[in-house]
Amino acid sequence: MKRLTLLRHAKSDWDDPVARDFDRPLNRRGEKAAMLMGQFAAQRKMQFDLLVASPAARVMQTLETFFAGYGQTLDARWDRRIYLASAPTLFDVVRDLPDSADSALLAGHNPGLEELILDLVPDDGVNPLREDVEVKFPTASIAVLDLPIESWTQARENIATIASFTRPRDLDPALGPETR
């Protein structure tokens, strides 16, 4: 069994006049959400053997703040393929994970992360968490997927189950979509 935890970057600052989207930083609400999600992961005793992440500034900042809340840091394996990747590209990233890692954290962007979840988890009407992801995979959300495989190379569509799906607003309503 392999466990894949997906973390979408926190809310970024569209008002920051950066030249490239890749360099866009987090806003204050994003920093608060990333910290809260790190604290949540620590409380849930989430464990990660490996971190693979997009090198975009907002993902790097999300991880820095997430790990401050988590209470420990994991060295990232930066993978440029994750930046604005589609689900097929993210499948390639997952299949390239080393089998020595039983629990991997992948940090990146939408719509790719949401599409990856929807591709991995069958649409069988049994799991309401899949339906929640289908509505929206908001910024700073964490989805934990269990894959009944021995090797990451075996990752394919419709084999995973969602163990949990947590949005920042689930922990603090002030971080919901109606707030700034």
Automatic annotation (TrEMBL):
Please name the InterPro entries in this protein's record: His_Pase_superF_clade-1, His_PPase_superfam
Domain of life of the organism encoding this protein: Bacteria
Signal peptide annotation: none
Give the residues the record marks as binding substrate.
Answer: R58
PANTHER family given in the database record: OS09G0287300 PROTEIN
Q: What is this protein called?
A: Histidine phosphatase family protein
